[in-house]
Amino acid sequence: MRVITIGVFDGVHKGHIKILEELKNLSKKHKATPEIFTIIYPIEYYKGNFDGLLISLQERINLLQMYGTVYTLDLLKIKNILAKDFFDLISKDTKAIVVGEDFRFGKNAEGDVTFLAKLCKERNIEFKIIKDIMANGERISSTLL
């Protein structure tokens, strides 16, 4: 059994740490393995209006490994999967899912935390949303950093 979180986790900032700490708490509660799915972007995303990532993939993995087993999800391979189908893929053997309140998933980011909560309830998977952390009136995010 496992407890999972999914996200880019670029910079592994305070908001991410709050999610990762809850991942560890839920893992202990459910006596399950904490697993982190981090999204990797193709080179095309580093051009144009995309400012790039704050830290390298390897640095991100090294930081995330302090909280659980890390897996990478290639954006090109998952971006066209419908939200329900993506949930079916990641929810197998899952006791709990924890994400930030801005989490989106599935083709065209069609799935949000409300939809994810519904799917988790149907499968009897505990679901936690971690509220944004604010600093000086702004949401702490990789973009802000």
Keywords:
alpha/beta, two-stranded antiparallel ribbon, 32% helix, globular, 5-stranded parallel sheet
Strands of the widest sheet, in order across it, are: 3-2-1-4-5
Query: Roughly how much helix do the residues carry, as a percent range?
Result: 25-40%
Count up the helices.
5
> How much is the average pLDDT?
88
Using DSSP, what is the number of strands? 7
Q: Segments where pLDDT lies below 50 for 5+ residues? A: none
What amount of the residues lies in strands?
15-25%
Q: What Rg, in angstroms, do the CA atoms define? A: 15 Å
Order of helices and strands: EHEHEHHEHEEE
Describe the structure.
This protein is of the alpha/beta class and 145 residues long. The chain is built from five helices and seven strands. The N and C termini lie far apart (35 Å). The model has no long low-confidence stretch (mean pLDDT 88).
Summed up:
The chain has 145 residues and is an alpha/beta fold. The chain has helices at 14-30, 57-64, 75-78, 83-90, 113-122, and strands at 2-7, 33-40, 69-74, 94-100, 126-130, 134-135, 138-139.
